[in-house]
Design a protein that fits this description.
Blueprint lengths: L1 H19 L3 E4 L5 E7 L2 E9 L5 E7 L2 E8 L5 E7 L2 E8 L5 E7 L2 E9 L5 E7 L2 E8 L5 E7 L2 E9 L5 E7 L2 E10 L5 E7 L2 E9 L5 E7 L2 E2 L4 E3 L6 E8 L4 E8 L5 E9 L3 E12 L2 E10 L2 E2 L3 E6 L2 E6 L6 E3 L2 E3 L13 H12 L2 E6 L19 E9 H7 L7 E10 L2 H30 L5 H19 L1 H5 L5 E2 L12 E3 L6 E2 L12 E3 L6 E2 L21 E2 L12 E3 L7 E2 L10 E3 L6 E2 L3 E2 L2 E4 L5 E2 L2 E3 L2 E4 L6 E2 L7 E3 L2 E4 L4 H8 L4 E4 L1
Parallel strand pairs: 31-32, 32-33, 33-35, 34-36, 35-37, 36-38, 38-39, 39-41, 40-42, 42-45, 43-46, 44-47, 45-48, 46-49, 47-50, 48-51, 51-52
Antiparallel strand pairs: 1-2, 2-3, 3-4, 4-5, 5-6, 6-7, 7-8, 8-9, 9-10, 10-11, 11-12, 12-13, 13-14, 14-15, 15-16, 16-17, 17-18, 18-19, 20-21, 21-22, 22-23, 23-24, 24-25, 25-26, 27-28, 29-30
Length: 676
């Protein structure tokens, strides 16, 4: 009987084992291969899966899911530990780059308690959330220890950094930088400073204990010691050493030595901020034992109004400069290191040779009496002058002489006053008198014709109005004073092919027609600060003109003033109010256009351009394609096409919020819309 019972138990056990753990090899349709225990066709128990991707899992399975085991990934990562529903639960990940994480996981990322040992020697341990350490301790390879809040793996929030040398920073951190709180700094020379930090810099009062045992109370502002002469080597790309005094108002008085420059040597004088030259000071150069100097008034590293001297060996050049403008010597633009921008003059020796050569074509004159420029310039030398600076009073006849300087590339008229010569005034007065005489006769003729009944009421009123306007013009002060204003005469510099840089008279209010017509190499023009009018074709076909700043006083821009200036990329008229504005930029390839404040209608052609329209715009037309259009009004302008090929399509249109319906109704689905 016992034998029968044992036989039945053995048979039952075999049946159970067969049902629960079928040890076999299974190949899946996608190429994966499993070898191990199975139940109901799924991995269950101990087994190994080799995936077609190259990944390998070996360990315990439950109903087809990982339970406890090791998975080696084709990218070199290896995880070993517990699994839950196909995700890591608690275990160790050895990354291909040498990093090792050991701890809790959630949805495939470290979350909960855990420790990361980095390949660079750093270790961090604490609370993790969504793959990032949120609070814990970081021990750096150099011996520093940080304990506190983290963000994206770096100190961020409240925490304390204890440095290997014994110093510490305790308080608020922002993205790995100490922002505010207590500091205890141990310097390499043995000094110790105890104080506070604000906004990432030492601030306020603190105690310095020197290596020799002496103590001193110091005051800091923005990381700088105040009211004490010091010598430091600041963390600055350009400065190697500062010796001087920092003041409460963030100004400095002292000297700095530069680094990384071949020619810039040192500066003595006033400074501000991040060691910028600001105030009276002297800038020295040292190149091959040749000492050069710029001495004058500085503002944020630039030489400003006032004089300076640029000394090369025994030659001295006077440099006069306005704020925010580059230093100019002849027709070359220099930076504050006196290294030329557009040539290879990278040291003083080469620059000296250049200056000596250029002096041969340089003239600077003061014209005391208008109409006498040839008393200061010889006719024979006109064709060789390259650089000309003039002060004094000029007539249009003097400018006709300047037009004969065929090699001229640089012209400075900023301190001149240009008016009509007596002969030109007389000619204009004669023309005006002839016109006024005609207008008066028009009034008399109107009376006679109307009295005979041969003139309609409307025509009579119009003719009398013209006669009345003529009488007003004859007696008005603006007309009498017109010839006394400073202006640039008609065709004054027309076809001057080598002209590159021009500074116009500061008091000029008008540029006449064709003034710079076809000056193809003109690159820089300094417009007068009180300019009111630019006339027809004044700068037409100045193909090299790139940057031009319009004064806010400009109120008249006439037909084709900048036609064919195809190097101009940006125009800003947003500060201007115009009484007359004609299509002026025909043939240009603008990248950005800011229209004037009182624009009523726009019929220009724009392609691949950013255009800003003010709220005054009522009508729009022209060909506007593939542009970025910015409208400031919530009410769209009306479309008015004047030519058969006019069209507005393919544009990105930026509009105020809530105005989409109106703009879409106006411009249609051929454009896209973005509410701002």
């Amino acid at each position: 009987m016992k034998t029968v019972i044992y036989y039945c138990l053995a048979l039952l056990l075999c049946i159970v084992v067969c049902n629960n753990a079928e040890a076999k090899i299974k190949k899946y349709p996608n190429g994966d291969v499993y070898e191990g225990e199975m139940r109901k066709g799924k991995p269950h128990g101990e087994g190994k899966m080799i995936y077609v991707s190259g990944d390998i899992y070996e360990g315990t399975w439950v109903n087809g899911f990982y339970k406890q085991g090791k998975k080696s990934y084709v990218d070199g990562n290896i995880y070993e530990g517990e699994w839950l529903d196909g995700y890591y639960k608690k275990g160790k990940m050895s990354y291909a780059n040498g990093d090792i994480y050991e701890g809790e996981w959630q949805l495939g990322k470290p979350e909960g308690k855990g420790k990361m040992s980095y390949s660079n020697g750093n270790t961090c341990e604490g609370n993790w959330y969504k793959g990032e350490l949120s609070y814990g301790k970081m021990i750096y390879a150099n011996g520093d220890i940080y304990e506190g809040a983290f963000s994206i793996g770096i100190p961020n929030g409240i925490g304390k950094m204890t440095y290997a040398n014994g110093g510490f920073c305790e308080g608020e951190w922002k993205m790995n930088q100490f922002y505010s709180g207590k500091i205890n700094i141990h310097y390499e020379n043995g000094d110790l400073y105890e104080g506070m930090c604000k906004r990432g810099k030492i601030e306020g009062e603190g105690i310095m204990t020197y290596a020799n045992g002496k103590t001193e109370k110091l005051k800091y502002k923005n990381g700088k010691i105040l009211n004490k002469k010091i010598t430091i080597h600041p963390d600055n790309d350009n400065i190697s050493e500062f010796t001087g005094i920092n003041y409460e108002d963030e100004t400095m008085d002292g000297s700095i030595k530069y680094k990384n420059y071949k020619t810039l040597y040192d500066y003595n004088g006033k400074m501000v901020g991040n060691y910028e030259r600001h105030g009276q000071g002297i800038l020295h150069f040292n190149d091959n034992n040749k000492i050069s100097t710029i001495e004058g008034l500085w503002q944020h590293d630039s030489l400003v109004s006032g004089s300076g001297k640029f000394i090369i060996q025994r030659d001295t050049l006077e440099v006069t400069k306005k704020a925010n403008q580059p230093i100019r010597i002849f027709d070359k633009v220099f930076n504050d290191n006196m290294v030329v921008h557009d040539s290879n003059y990278s040291n003083m020796d080469e620059l000296y040779k250049y200056i000596k050569k250029q002096k041969e074509g340089m003239r600077k004159i003061t014209v005391k009496k208008p109409g006498t420029i040839l008393s200061y310039l010889d006719i024979e030398e006109l064709s060789s002058i390259k650089h000309l600076t003039i002060t004094g009073f000029l007539y249009e006849t003097d400018l006709a002489v300047i037009n004969q300087c065929t090699a001229l590339s640089y012209l400075d008229l900023s301190h001149t006053f240009i008016t009509d010569s007596p002969q030109a005034k007389q000619e204009k007065e004669n023309e005006a008198k002839a016109l006024l005489g005609f207008v008066k006769l028009l009034g008399v003729a109107a009376d006679l014709t109307y009295g005979d009944g041969n003139l309609s009421n409307s025509d009579y009123i119009m003719m009398k109005a013209l006669a009345k306007l003529g009488e007003y013009a004859e007696n008005s002060e603006p007309v009498k004073q017109a010839n006394e204003n400073c202006f640039i005469p008609k065709a004054a510099f027309k076809n001057m092919q080598f002209l590159k840089t021009v500074k116009l008279p500061l008091s000029a209010i008008e540029i006449k027609e064709d003034a710079f017509y076809e000056c193809e190499n003109l690159e820089n023009i300094q417009l007068p600060p009180y300019l009111k009018s630019i006339n027809e074709q004044a700068f037409a076909y100045c193909k090299s003109l790139k940057n031009i700043e319009f004064p806010s006083t400009l109120s008249m821009l006439k037909q084709s003033a900048f036609r064919g200036c195809d190097s101009i990329e940006r125009i800003d008229l947003s500060k201007n109010t115009f009484s007359e504005f004609k299509p002026s930029f025909n043939g240009t390839t603008l990248k950005e256009m800011r229209l004037y404040k009182n624009v009523y209608s726009s019929y220009e052609y724009y392609t691949n351009c950013v255009v800003y329209f003010p709220s005054s715009l009522e009508y729009i037309g022209g060909k506007v394609y593939n542009c970025e259009l910015h409208f400031s009004s919530s009410i769209p302008p009306k479309i008015q096409y004047l030519r058969p090929d006019d069209i507005i399509k393919g544009n990105k249109i930026y509009i105020p919020k809530g105005s989409l319906t109106g703009y879409f109704t106006t411009f249609g689905k051929q454009n896209t819309y973005i509410e701002e």
